[in-house]
Write a sequence for this structure.
């Protein structure tokens, strides 16, 4: 069963505007972590932001913020003031497992294209 | 600071030939290590992960194998490549004992084309 769902295969956003990338997840484990990664055309996976399931506040990292709605099992990424360099594929991921035995499951990704 | 490197960056191999992709991590000890594969335009699929030397967990049955001969070295191998093995392979690490313990960091990736 799909554990991470990203329903937007592609999005266009105007430079300097904000964009929201959707992510929903499925788990019965009370302890989990949610991540967003950016993958530019070069292929590297760049860590952007992390939200723990017990974190009371939404995570923020510069222009990135995570809109965590635990009851709805959603963890949307908001990129504010989009820049041309933000054009890339974005992946939502969930950490599963306990102790030292854990791994990440990824969604299918959303391609973001920033227009000048 | 911690760094991760994998090589080769690009590989073109004929069907039936062997494969060896190598990944090393510096600046940390006893990390978790992972191999992911990404088909063109798709998400990442976890292939193998390791929580210690000689400890390998396989996520999907396939034509590949992994080994961890040293604490910070992770190798992805195949004895005979198939066309379906083509893709982008990413090595990754995490370390619960570090300040970034919850995060998994990725290497630069290796593009494999089987012809």
């Amino acid at each position: 069963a799909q554990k991470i769902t990203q329903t937007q295969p592609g999005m266009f956003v105007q430079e300097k505007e904000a964009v929201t990338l959707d992510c929903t997840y499925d788990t019965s484990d009370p302890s989990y972590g949610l991540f967003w990664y950016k993958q530019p055309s070069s292929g590297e996976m760049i860590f952007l932001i992390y939200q723990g399931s017990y974190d009371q506040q939404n995570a923020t990292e510069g222009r990135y913020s995570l809109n965590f709605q635990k009851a709805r099992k959603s963890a949307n990424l908001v990129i504010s003031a989009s820049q041309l360099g933000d054009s890339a594929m974005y992946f939502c991921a969930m950490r599963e497992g306990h102790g030292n035995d854990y791994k990440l499951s990824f969604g299918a990704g959303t391609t973001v294209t920033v227009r000048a | 600071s911690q760094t991760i490197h994998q090589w080769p960056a690009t590989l073109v191999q004929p069907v039936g030939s062997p494969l060896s992709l190598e990944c090393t991590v510096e600046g940390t000890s006893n990390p978790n290590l992972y191999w992911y594969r990404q088909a063109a335009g798709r998400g990442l699929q976890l292939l193998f992960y390791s929580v210690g030397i000689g400890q390998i967990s396989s996520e999907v049955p396939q034509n590949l194998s992994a080994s961890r001969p040293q604490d910070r070295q992770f190798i992805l191998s195949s004895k005979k490549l198939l066309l379906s093995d083509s893709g982008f392979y990413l090595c990754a690490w995490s370390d619960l004992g570090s300040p970034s313990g919850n995060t998994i960091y990725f290497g630069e990736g290796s593009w494999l084309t089987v012809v």
